[in-house]
Amino acid sequence: MSASAWTDAEKAAAGAGITIRTLDDIADLEEVRRLYERIWRTGATNPPVTADLLRAMAKAGSYVSGAYDGEELVGACFGFFSAPARDALHSHIAGVSGRMAGRHVGLALKLHQRAWTLDQGAGAITWTYDPLIRRNSWFNLGKLAADVTEYLPDFYGPMDDDINRTDATDRVLVRWTLTEPAVVAACAGTPRTVEVARLRTEGAVVALEVSAAGGPIVRPAYGRTVLVGVPVDVEGLREQDPALAGAWREALREVLGGLLAGGARVRGFDRSGWYVVERQEVQ
């Protein structure tokens, strides 16, 4: 399986016009630190990572990689193994320079990470992401076919960067089972999709949606299949209307977090902005 995974990874890197390699040299790792600080626009009290920590992680057998456009570092990803030992890799941070938008560098990094992890004998990768960011939801649940396992309210606490500073750091934890058929298909170029229009005709219930003014509308989550909407651009809202962005955070925590806590399962994400959630028991 790792041979085909490397084929997928190499194809994705070639399509993005980049090269990806694992890193352990301190000068390269310092470049990773500086890249992350530019991406997240961090304050002095909260750097995303330090070069010495990355050096220690690489020495201990963890994953640290860089994506290069020619000689320029334009993306990086690192993760460490989680308990039980070497069963899964936890991918802590992945970031790509804004100037590479549309080049699919993030996809190439994840496919490289998948192939490397399979080579280590591990079968899964976990990571967290902000469930309010629509493009990340589609990327993780659609293009990669990862599965949501848990909602984590304010997981990282206050963060001193321009992306997260005004908002609670709610995250969802996902698990990417690397040889699952849906994941294999996604890595070969066939994303996992859900048909929201069809589901609505079949009786799916909307529990959270966007109002005409852009705010959240919470509705009772009756029925087995539940649709949970997110705004088009919550990052823009954080800059233009932090109070409205905060209202969205509270609404998604209540609805999606509540459904997951009650045993529901996320079936997927429609790129038009909907989580499709399947409740295990209908009351």
TrEMBL record:
Residues in coiled coil: none
- Reply yes or no: does the keyword Transferase apply: yes
Q: Which domain of life is it from?
A: Bacteria
The terms under GO molecular function for this entry are: transferase activity
- SUPFAM superfamilies xref list: Acyl-CoA N-acyltransferases (Nat)
Which keywords fit this entry according to its UniProt record? Transferase
For this protein, the record's PANTHER family field holds: GCN5-RELATED N-ACETYLTRANSFERASE, N-ACETYLTRANSFERASE DOMAIN-CONTAINING PROTEIN
Query: What is the official name of this protein in its record?
Result: Putative GNAT superfamily acetyltransferase
Organism, per UniProt? Nocardioides kongjuensis
